[in-house]
Specification:
5 helices, transmembrane, alpha+beta, 3-stranded mixed beta sheet, Alpha-Beta Plaits, 51% helix, rod-shaped, 178 residues
Length: 178
């Protein structure tokens, strides 16, 4: 919630509380009843008093719109509830973890990871270039295993599937031996 919304909700709540207290006291207190009657009689004949209800109407519409907009759920994160509260792990963080884990293994270059949430699990998609001197199936299986273990241990989220797309063979630069 924005700071301006918090300010207006504080004023709105305070004014509603004062009006509620007055309305509670009207049937049981003669002085409040007479004061309210006199106030409403004076209020009826003056058009400048329209500003107060307009203020309440604008604030109410603002809160109504704010409430509708706040119901949008950020689907770009995995949300887990613990005994102590809520934990949000962004897809960007999960993608970074998958990419870092894949880079630790030998055999792939230019690795890019994307993550998708499916129900309570994740699907990780890895796009990379393979080095020419590796066994691609065994390297990919090793990387899939490492990514799955790393993400499940770090986040507690089940990794349902890891798809690896080898787009091309990377050109290896030969190191100079001096």
């Amino acid at each position: 919630m924005k700071l301006i919304d918090r300010f207006f909700i504080s004023i709105y709540t305070l004014l509603i509380a004062i009006i509620s207290i007055v309305l509670i006291l009207v049937p049981i207190n003669d002085w409040i009843y007479n004061w309210t009657s006199y106030f409403l009689e004076q209020y009826r004949l003056d058009l400048t008093n329209v500003f107060i209800p307009v203020f309440f109407l604008i604030i109410s519409i603002r809160f109504l719109i704010s409430g509708i907009n706040s119901k949008k759920i950020n689907t770009n994160a995995v949300i887990r509830h613990t005994d102590f509260g809520e934990v949000k792990i962004s897809m960007q963080a999960i993608e970074g973890m998958a990419q870092k884990s894949a880079k630790l293994s030998h055999g792939l270059r230019d690795i890019k990871a994307t993550a998708q949430q499916r129900d309570d699990s994740l699907i990780i998609i890895i796009k990379a270039l393979a080095l020419s001197d590796i066994n691609i199936p065994s390297t990919v299986i090793n990387i899939q295993k490492n990514i799955k273990e790393h993400i499940e241990e770090s986040t507690g989220i089940i990794v349902k599937e890891i798809k690896v797309n080898i787009d091309d063979i990377a050109i290896q630069s030969k190191k100079r031996v001096e």
